[in-house]
Amino acid sequence: MTDEAAEEFVATADLTEYDLSHFVPTAFEFSDEEEVNVTLPKVQLDAVKALAERRGVPYRRLMRELIEIGLKTA
User: Fold this and answer.
1) What InterPro entries does this protein map onto (predicted)?
2) Running DSSP on this structure, what letter comes out for residue 2?
3) Closest alpha carbon to 31 in 56, 70, 64
4) Are 50 and 63 in contact (CB under 8 A)?
5) pTM assigned to the model
6) How is domain 22-73 classified at the CATH fold level?
7) Of 24, 58, 61, 69, which sits with the fewest C-beta atoms within 10 Å of its C-beta?
């Protein structure tokens, strides 16, 4: 599905037919990013990669999300 097709669907679809209770709010960042190098135990990196694969997201994006959650709860 193209972005245009998705936009058209959302703009015209009756979303009341869908159960949106399981949706999770997502924050989008458009600020400058800076690259860092982090050394992790292999078992932690493997766990992050496995979780990312189950969720269908890139593991680096998942790591950023997990750090953000940790910072909010710290």
Assistant:
1) CopG_antitoxin
2) -
3) 64
4) no
5) 0.57
6) Arc Repressor Mutant (1.10.1220)
7) 24
CA distance 58 to 56: 7
Domain boundary assignment for the chain: 22-73
- Whole-angstrom CA distances from 40 to 14, 37, 47, 48 are 45, 10, 11, 11
d(CA 37, CA 71): 18
Type of residue at 32: D
What are the angstrom distances between the C-alpha of 6 and each of 11, 20, 40?
Answer: 9, 17, 38
Amino acid at 12: T
User: CA dist 34 to 29, 31, 37, 43, Å?
Assistant: 13, 10, 10, 25
Q: How far apart are CA 53 and CA 55, in angstroms?
A: 5
The token pair that represents 36 in the structure block:
């860092």
